[in-house]
What we know:
- This protein is an alpha/beta fold.
- The protein is about 45% helix and about 20% strand.
- The protein has a seven-stranded mixed β-sheet with strand order 3-2-1-4-5-9-7, with helices on both faces. It has a two-stranded antiparallel ribbon with strand order 6-8.
- Strand 4, helix 6 (about 145-155) and strand 5 form a beta-alpha-beta unit.
- Helix 9 runs antiparallel to helix 11.
- It starts with a helix and ends with a strand.
Amino acid sequence: MSVEQAESTARTYYDSPDADTFYSKVWGGEDIHVGLYETPQEEIAAASRRTVARMAEIAGIGPDTTVLDLGAGYGGAARQIAKATGATVHCVNLSPVENERNTRLTSEQGLSDKVDVVTASFEDVPVDDASVDVVWSQDAFLHSGNRDAVLDEIARVLKPGGQVVFTDPMAADGLDQSSIQPILDRIQLATMATPGFYTDGLERRGFSEVKFHDHADQLPTHYRRVREELVAREAELAAEISEGYISGMKAGLQHWVDGGNAGKLSWGIVHAVKD
């Protein structure tokens, strides 16, 4: 699938009323990413906020930091970072529906001077060379039709000494990815990245201190919790989300749970410094 096709697929999906309702009401509210759970039944939103706090700690984000959030979704992480650290956050995201919600929530929370939103893709970022301190992303790069181009853009926009910190659902290194075909069908791409793809790719682009903080066990926990929440609220959500979407989502979430529990998937925090 070409970059353009991948972008169109992701945009069409996330702009749909079913997906917008599901992610905003079930997945975690303002956040659309995997959480770091302290207990198996912890609230999804609390675990999601913990991921943001941990990533911000790893990158040492502070009040003078300029952050570029690629695939920012509803902007929950951007607002959490801005509130907690005083950093300035530029959100890039390809879904106009998500971006409208991001802009509205940012304004309602009085953060428009700290968080801005641009509709664009992470393969062609509308940001100057060597202009940001931290590139940030959560569980978005898997939708890319050209992840090498994403890494090129990260290297381009970071200042010398700048940092990249991101998460992404991945296949385990060395996996025959035909064994996760239902998941690939779900995201409508031929492959998933692996931890080695990202760490090797960053090293080839002149990054140092490249590290993968492995939290693979969190992936099936998160997808299980989301599925449990969906099932528990199915009757309530039936008035707002189509029966076909709910049925497909329950099956899709279970594939992620099964793949994670079988050790076929990986997830964690990738961090590196641009030399």
